[in-house]
Design a protein that fits this description.
The complex is a heterodimer. By secondary structure, chain A is an alpha/beta fold. Chain A contains 8 helices and 4 strands. In chain A, strands 1-2-3-4 form a 4-stranded parallel β-sheet. In chain A, helix 4 links the parallel strand 1 and strand 2. In chain A, helix 3 packs antiparallel against helix 7. Chain B has 19 helices and 16 strands. Chain B is of the alpha+beta class. In chain B, strand 3 and strand 4 form a beta hairpin. In chain B, strands 1-4-3-2 form a 4-stranded mixed β-sheet. A 3-stranded antiparallel β-sheet of chain B has the order 9-10-11. Chain B starts with 44 loop residues before the first strand and ends with a helix. Chain B folds into 2 domains: 136 residues, 2-Layer Sandwich (Beta Polymerase, domain 2), CATH 3.30.460.80; 313 residues, Orthogonal Bundle (Cytochrome-c3 Hydrogenase, chain B). Classes of the chains: A alpha/beta, B alpha+beta. At the A-B interface, helix 4, helix 5 and helix 8 of A face helix 5 and helix 9 of B. Bound molecules: iron/sulfur cluster. The site of iron/sulfur cluster has 12 residues of chain A, from helix 4 and helix 6.
């Protein structure tokens, strides 16, 4: 007889243990925090973290699993993510589920730029983390973090719905420790900052002219 | 214990296969080279480019070869040149031929077009131009189709280095409004001319690449007159992953992994096709047990895909409740898959010479529970959505395709069968257990969106019938043949096809006797379905594009490959 593998759920301590967050909290509170502002922050962050609206953005296989997460059994509505938006202007978080090709990369960047701050990016699946099974291909971007900054990575090919939810809960934790008033939270640089972008454009343009 | 329906060896439900059924040493090692030519060997007849037009016209007119099954670009190196393999079939007589042609001029490769004989050749030849740079003289629209227009070089040529020439470009992609056309003059020179795709005053709307109801990343440029669609110009390649090129540097067992990710709703069938192609080419016979398992899995996958089709169609038309109903049932199939294969969507189950693991002890029981469950629940689909007057009005008489059109566009699968074309590969070229089970090929004649939807609903029931006939009789046997550690396919060109969830999924394999394929081409089921959108949508309202696109049922990564 085949043995059924025993699957243990992730222990509570492991779930809570995340160096990145500890560092983030430390940095944010480095200069001390104003009591009133921090209390207000907590309240607003609590509200925000439980009503993150994702953009419906799916390029391939992982997108089907995203649909499964939205449907009856896994019910993403339990976490307040069910309001999927079709327009980037109304979305808080973009779930990059699926392979991003070099032809798609400028489109993805534009979608990201169209979203209103504060905005978050979750890279779902091997493809959006590193190119996944297609990493050797000439037409696949080797990780979306080359194009837009990523907050949470969810590995898998495709990730199981449970991993989706775990990843989204980690994003909630991140939102919860952020400051809403006064300071800026986003320290990581856009991988392609505007200046670099302009430079690159010029090079390509001049090359085109030469050709 | 139920009585078996026929006198096949009866595997007790829920029982694990005996230890003796393990694969090791049950059968002798597979022979290195088959004595007779492989079943799926195709020996394409060579035609000189100069004589190609005449030969093609003769086949089309006199032999009624009206179905261009597959058109594959090839790079045979310096001596062989750049060329094309054509697979033709006559829908009247069922006769099939394969032809090939090549030109050795790598600087200016010209071949004559066949796009006026078969509508689908238009998009296939653009694909070959995009990958190999072969220019088809007389083709009305020689634009790139998958790559950006500023892409340098032709990625599929053996001597190209696409990654070096093409860094990640973050500029917006240029889109031309002019379609280049190359004409062969009487004196042998080639003249380039350009025709505008859209006129000066045309009103053009972009749909996609990021749009929730294009089922992936697909871009249409739509010319409108008021609300009426006049022309649809698809722009593809937003999920072109270069799978075919990647395959050329992977060993055969490695190539399998990528098939699941093409049409992820036909993961089983796609991989079945590739495994079958390699097995037949090597002359390996898989055990009957494997044939049974593969057939059942293929049909479960088909049901899975059709349920998802229904759910997405509902979602696109705003019926979110029906979407949830569909996914509730789909999860049941995913549970069955998960127990045996370990995956939900990407299954990685078929292998060369068998399957990855034997079926789970619960498999038979679960499937038998699922059959009556699904038969009962499909009624709900009709109650909540299909019999709804809103859907009826949006689907009936909308996006009509005639039988001639679907054949000329090569739209196999449910889309073709909705227009009355009997194209089911399971009947045309039976494989696995399909020759032995009793099932109907579902066809209709209306050719509209409603017929396309109904075909898939009826196919769910028919697939349940097929599974019901097989599930009690899975014979004992090894689930994996003993294969050599390094798999090499004898030299030759092979073509095998299976009925995927949305049409004929074909695999063309050219081997030079190495452990890597020389060329591995997939006949995409979705590419013809996108090509036909222009014909299906013209004259309909812009809102109907969603219904039509939903019912022809394409999956974008399978189109772009
Ligand atoms: S990570 Fe795997 S499942 Fe997800 S898009 Fe990539 S290939 Fe598909």
């Amino acid at each position: 007889m085949m043995k059924r593998p025993k699957i243990k759920s992730i222990p509570y301590d492991d779930f809570k243990d995340n160096e990145t967050f500890e560092k983030l909290v430390e940095e944010l509170n480095a200069g001390g925090a104003n009591v009133i502002v921090r209390k207000l922050d907590d309240l607003i962050d609590w509200g925000r973290s439980n009503s993150l609206w994702p953009l419906t953005f799916a390029t391939s296989c992982c997108g089907i699993e995203f649909m499964a997460v939205c449907a009856a059994r896994y019910d993403i509505a339990r976490f307040g993510f069910e309001v999927t938006r079709n327009s980037p202007r109304q979305a808080d978080v973009i779930l990059v589920s699926g392979t991003i090709t070099t032809k798609m990369a400028p489109v993805l960047k534009r979608l990201y730029d169209q979203m209103a701050d504060p905005k978050y990016v979750v890279a779902i699946g091997g493809c959006s983390i590193s190119g996944g099974p297609f990493t050797k291909s000439y037409h696949v971007v080797k990780g979306v973090d080359q194009v837009i900054p990523v907050d949470v990575y969810v590995p898998g090919c495709p990730p199981r719905p449970e991993s989706f939810l775990y990843g989204m809960m980690q994003l909630q934790r991140k939102v919860k420790v952020e400051n809403f008033f006064g300071t800026t939270n986003r320290k990581e640089k856009d991988p392609i900052s505007r200046a670099e972008q302009r430079e690159k454009d010029e090079i390509i343009l001049s090359e085109e002219e030469k050709a | 214990m139920e009585t078996p329906e026929n006198n096949k060896v009866n595997a007790p439900a829920g029982a694990a296969p005996a230890a003796g059924a393990r694969p090791a040493a049950v059968r002798p090692a597979a022979p290195a080279a088959p004595a007779q030519p492989a079943k799926n060997l195709c020996e394409p007849k060579t035609v000189e480019p100069a004589a190609l037009r005449k030969e093609m016209e003769r086949l089309r007119r006199d032999e009624q070869m009206d179905f261009l099954e597959c058109l594959t670009g090839m790079d045979w190196g310096e001596e062989g040149g750049l060329g094309v393999i054509y697979h033709l079939e006559s829908t009247a007589t069922g006769k099939r031929v394969a032809l090939k042609t090549a030109t050795t001029d790598r600087e200016h490769p010209y071949l004559p077009t066949v796009s006026d004989l078969w509508d689908i050749a238009n998009i296939y030849e653009r694909e070959v131009y995009d990958f190999y740079g072969i220019i088809f003289t007389g083709h009305p629209d020689m634009r790139r189709i998958f790559m950006r227009e500023d892409w340098v070089g032709f990625p599929f040529r053996k001597d190209s280095n696409p990654e070096k020439d093409n860094p990640l470009r973050m500029t917006n992609e240029p889109l031309t409004d002019l379609a280049p056309c190359y004409t062969l003059e009487a004196d042998g020179t080639v003249r380039r001319s350009e025709t505008p795709i859209f006129g000066e005053d045309d009103y053009v709307v972009n749909l996609g690449p990021q749009h929730p109801s294009t089922h992936g990343v697909l871009h249409f440029r739509i010319k409108l007159e008021g609300e009426t669609i006049k022309k649809v110009d698809p722009i593809l390649g937003y999920i072109h992953r270069g799978v075919e090129k990647l395959n050329e540097s992977l060993t055969y067992p490695q190539t399998l992994a990528l098939t699941d990710r093409l049409d992820y709703l036909g993961a089983m069938q796609n991989r079945h096709a590739l495994c079958m192609c390699i097995e037949q080419a090597m002359g390996v016979e898989v055990s009957e047990r494997v044939q049974y398992i593969r057939t059942i899995m293929d049909e479960l996958q088909r049901i899975d895909s059709h349920i998802l089709f229904f759910s997405c169609l509902c979602q696109d038309l705003g019926a979110t409740t029906a979407f949830l109903y569909g996914f509730r049932d789909r999860e049941k199939i995913l549970d069955i898959f998960e127990e045996t294969c370990g995956g939900r969507l990407i299954l990685n189950y078929n292998t060369i010479g068998g399957v990855m693991a034997d079926i789970h002890p619960n498999f038979v029981k679960r499937v038998k529970e699922f059959i009556p469950y699904m038969r009962h629940n499909i009624q709900e689909y009709f109650d909540v959505f299909i019999n709804n007057v809103i859907f009826r009005n949006r689907a009936e008489g909308v996006g009509v395709l005639s039988k001639e059109q679907v054949i000329s566009f090569g739209c196999t699968g449910g889309t073709g069968r909705a227009s009355g074309w009997h194209n089911d590969v399971r009947k045309r070229m039976p494989y696995a257990m399909y020759g032995k089970v009793d099932f109907k090929e579902i066809t209709r004649t209306e050719g509209d969106s409603f017929a396309r939807c109904m075909i898939r609903m009826d196919e769910i029931l028919e697939s349940l019938n097929i599974i019901e006939q097989l599930i009690d009789n899975i014979p004992e046997g090894p689930f994996q043949e003993k294969m050599k550690p390094i798999i090499k396919v004898p030299e030759g060109t092979y073509y095998s096809a299976v009925e995927g969830s949305r049409g004929e999924f074909g695999v063309l394999l050219e081997s030079r006797g190495d452990k890597f394929p020389y060329r591995l081409h997939y006949r995409s089921t979705g590419l013809p379905l996108v090509a036909v959108m222009d014909t299906a949508c013209s004259g309909n309202m812009i809102a109907d594009l969603i219904t039509i696109g939903g019912t022809v049922d394409y999956v974008v990564p399978d189109i772009d490959r």
